[in-house]
């Protein structure tokens, strides 16, 4: 049985989806988006994702959501992640190896300092 | 404050040129020479761009552009230590391009969700207005949908730029018991990867666009013909199709409209010719991928002999946004004859390679410098190929050409699938020509003689030239081969080999002639000594 049979139901799902996304991010201070496109994965994005999740839990940081997404086409500097903290401009980092991911978490998430040598883009993707 | 201040540009483009490394090196040198009491090195945001990293020395108000650590050292030793300005590294302040000049503003229509949503979660797509265009279209009459697409001026992004609304109209008007929508996701063009990123990052946009197309022309079945190596795209598309069925956007009686549509993914095996629309149809039918005679065109006689719309991934991905926001909105972006955006793939010798969506009419230079950050490693740009391997090679004089579907006609610069290949001065023109022709020789399906033999002969001539064995007659013959092959070939592959070849010969004729005189300015080609064969075990 299909879930959506009319525009009204579609709108309901949209509301619900927006709620769900908010829930996922509620009580969170921000999120890290890992670009998991083909070049991203080829460049090691899976290891980066793993390192981020592990390092966050090691540091007992639970107010940062980690999400996956497609890739914005910055092939040259994969793996890329976007760090967006509430009330701040999102920052895209490139060449995020597991080590660099730790540096970013340490500096950007914990100390609030942007890691400028890894930054490739500022503002909305 | 020290008496001398050195500002080093460390914006993101300069970083790619080595700015960070240069700055650190300079600081080390300052210490090494005990200059710290008189010199301060400051990193600053962009001072503008030149060929290298821009350095500004105050109070002398001298600008340098450096490309290597040796040059940094020279500035420290000469200018800072001995007070002698380094003339050969100096750049005129006026020549430094302000950073803003090339800044290009991304406009994201087909890439609006990429990197923003989780492509494997249909609800995130819905949260960003996903499937609202479908719902809206289903409340319009099919010919109103076609009218809207026609009015928007959307043209095919697969290379040829055919008006999409017209194609749909032809198919809608054709009488048949069954019609099809086919999405061309073969993406065989070397250097192109935009379709992959769209399907990977936002598969539902493609699905939604196809359902709308189906409704508009009266087709109830769709195929996505995708390159087999695109594992991630295939996986994401399959998941998305499954979810779309579950939510009732695919299948029977979609959103209670009475309209039904089914969608299947078909994998290609990686032959370039299978991207040609009729070869692609043959391939879906289970035959070997050889082009068909046109006319009749697919809107009349397409898949399994039925009327068929075949559109590129990027073309289809534009559809939901046009339906949702209207043709007038769409026409406000881009140029009058080519509304909307184009997704460009920037490859080759630039600092930042990758994909970017920009309004139609953006210039080659803007893409190259605004997005790409200029030529890599401080080398000189030699030429640019636009539009893919079957596209034009242009010299530096044409960098300011606006890219749209008229740029071929007006400026001899093709837009094609939107690849922009930057080539620096370490490459040889003849060698490039050989590479391009080898691709076409390899991918020629062999069905017709001019293409099969023409590409082979062109390769042979070019190979001779790279060995300094070519003659002036060879060059004339090469021209002729290109023209005859283009005139007499059966399909678009053979018909377009003249474009890259003639643009190379015409724009860089001197370098071809030099090879006849046995020199190669890029030092790529060498005379081959004819040695007796040495027996090896
Ligand atoms: C040799 C050859 C290869 C082609 N490869 C592709 C391709 O990989 N992807 C694509 O979308 N169109 C390709 N095309 C263009 C298609 O034949 C066709 O024009 C296109 O799919 C139409 O879609 P559009 O109107 O949306 O651009 C190719 C054409 C030729 C002659
Ligand atoms: S032009 Fe080339 S690719 Fe096209 S049918 Fe002839 S041999 Fe095949
Ligand atoms: S997938 Fe190519 S840039 Fe990320």
Automatic annotation (TrEMBL), chain A:
MF-aspect GO terms: iron-sulfur cluster binding; metal ion binding
Sorted UniProt keywords: Iron, Iron-sulfur, Metal-binding
InterPro entries for this protein: Thioredoxin-like_sf
UniProt key word Iron-sulfur: yes
Cross-referenced PANTHER family: NADH-QUINONE OXIDOREDUCTASE SUBUNIT F
Name of this chain's protein: (2Fe-2S) ferredoxin domain-containing protein
Organism: Fervidobacterium thailandense
Upper taxonomic lineage: Bacteria, Thermotogati, Thermotogota, Thermotogae, Thermotogales
Automatic annotation (TrEMBL), chain B:
Stored InterPro entries: NADH-UbQ_OxRdtase_51kDa_CS, NADH-UbQ_OxRdtase_suF, Nuo51_FMN-bd, Nuo51_FMN-bd_sf, Nuop51_4Fe4S-bd, Nuop51_4Fe4S-bd_sf, Thioredoxin-like_sf
Catalysed reactions, as listed in the record: a quinone + NADH + 5 H(+)(in) = a quinol + NAD(+) + 4 H(+)(out)
Source organism, top-level taxon: Bacteria
Keyword Ribosomal protein: no
Keywords assigned by UniProt, alphabetized: 4Fe-4S, Flavoprotein, FMN, Iron, Iron-sulfur, Metal-binding, NAD, Oxidoreductase, Quinone, Translocase
Cofactors named for this entry: [4Fe-4S] cluster; FMN
EC number annotated for this UniProt entry: 7.1.1.-
Chain ranges of the NADH-ubiquinone oxidoreductase 51kDa subunit iron-sulphur binding domain: 430-475
First-level EC class: translocase
Pfam name, any one: NADH_4Fe-4S
GO molecular function, one term: 4 iron, 4 sulfur cluster binding
Function, as annotated: NDH-1 shuttles electrons from NADH, via FMN and iron-sulfur (Fe-S) centers, to quinones in the respiratory chain.
NCBIfam families (alphabetical): nuoF_fam, PRK13596.1
PANTHER family xref list: NADH-QUINONE OXIDOREDUCTASE SUBUNIT F
Family as reported in the entry's similarity comment: Belongs to the complex I 51 kDa subunit family.
Descriptive protein name: NADH-quinone oxidoreductase subunit F
Organism field: Fervidobacterium thailandense
């Amino acid at each position: 049985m299909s879930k959506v049979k009319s525009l009204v139901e579609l709108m309901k799902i949209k509301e619900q989806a927006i709620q769900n996304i908010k829930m996922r991010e509620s009580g969170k201070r921000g999120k890290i988006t890992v670009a998991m496109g083909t070049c991203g994965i080829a460049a090691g994005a899976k290891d980066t994702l793993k390192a981020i999740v592990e390092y966050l839990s090691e540091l007992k940081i639970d107010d940062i959501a980690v999400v996956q997404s497609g890739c914005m086409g910055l092939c040259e500097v994969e793996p890329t992640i976007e760090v967006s903290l509430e009330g701040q401009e999102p920052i895209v980092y490139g060449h995020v190896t597991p080590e660099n991911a730790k540096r970013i978490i340490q500096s950007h998430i914990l100390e609030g300092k942007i890691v400028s040598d890894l930054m490739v883009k500022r503002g909305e993707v | 404050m020290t008496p001398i201040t050195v500002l080093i540009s460390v914006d993101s483009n300069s970083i790619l040129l080595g700015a960070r490394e240069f700055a650190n090196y300079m600081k080390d040198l300052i210490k090494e020479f005990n200059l710290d009491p008189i010199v301060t090195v400051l990193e600053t945001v962009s001072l503008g761009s030149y060929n290298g990293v821009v350095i500004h020395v105050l109070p002398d108000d001298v600008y340098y552009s450096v490309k290597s650590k040796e040059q940094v050292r020279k500035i420290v030793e000469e200018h800072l230590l001995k007070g002698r300005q380094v003339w050969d590294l100096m750049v005129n302040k006026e020549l430094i391009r302000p950073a803003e000049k090339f800044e290009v503003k991304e406009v994201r229509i087909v890439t609006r969700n990429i990197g923003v949503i989780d492509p494997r979660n249909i609800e995130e797509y819905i949260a960003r207005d996903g499937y609202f265009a479908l719902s809206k279209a289903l409340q319009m009459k099919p010919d109103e949908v076609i009218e809207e697409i026609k009015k928007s001026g959307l043209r095919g992004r697969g290379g040829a730029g055919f008006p999409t609304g017209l194609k749909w109209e032809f198919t809608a008007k054709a009488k048949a018991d069954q019609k099809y929508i086919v999405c061309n996701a073969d993406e065989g063009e070397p250097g192109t990867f935009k379709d992959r990123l769209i399907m990977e990052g936002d598969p539902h946009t493609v699905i939604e666009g196809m359902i709308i197309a189906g409704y508009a022309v009266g087709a109830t079945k769709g195929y996505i013909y995708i390159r087999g190596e695109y594992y991630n795209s295939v996986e994401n598309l399959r998941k998305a199709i499954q979810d779309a069925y579950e939510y009732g956007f695919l299948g029977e009686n979609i959103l209670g409209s009475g309209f039904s549509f089914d969608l299947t993914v078909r994998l290609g095996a990686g032959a370039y010719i299978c991207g040609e629309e009729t070869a692609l149809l043959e391939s879906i039918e289970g035959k070997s991928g050889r082009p068909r005679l046109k006319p009749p065109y697919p809107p009349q006689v397409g898949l399994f002999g039925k009327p068929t719309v075949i559109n590129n991934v990027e073309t289809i991905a534009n559809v939901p946004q046009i339906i949702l926001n209207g043709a007038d909105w769409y026409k406000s972006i881009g140029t009058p004859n080519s509304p909307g955006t184009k997704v460009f793939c920037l490859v080759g010798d630039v600092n930042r390679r990758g994909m970017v969506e920009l309004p139609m009419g953006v210039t080659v230079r803007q893409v190259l410098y605004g997005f790409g950050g200029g030529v890599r490693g401080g080398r000189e740009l030699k030429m640019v190929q636009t539009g893919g391997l079957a596209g034009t090679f242009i010299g530096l004089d044409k960098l300011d050409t606006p890219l749209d579907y008229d740029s071929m006609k007006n400026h001899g610069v093709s837009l094609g699938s939107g690849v922009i290949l930057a080539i620096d001065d370490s490459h040889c023109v003849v060698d490039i020509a050989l590479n391009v022709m080898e691709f076409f020789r390899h991918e020629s399906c062999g069905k017709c003689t001019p293409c099969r033999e023409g590409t082979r002969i062109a390769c042979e001539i070019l190979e001779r030239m790279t060995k300094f064995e070519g003659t002036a007659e060879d060059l004339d013959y090469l021209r002729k081969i290109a023209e005859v092959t283009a005139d007499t070939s059966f399909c678009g592959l053979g018909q377009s080999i003249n474009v890259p070849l003639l643009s190379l010969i015409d724009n860089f004729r001197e370098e071809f002639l030099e090879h006849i005189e046995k020199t190669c300015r890029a030092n790529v080609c060498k005379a081959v000594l004819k040695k007796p064969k040495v027996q090896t075990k």
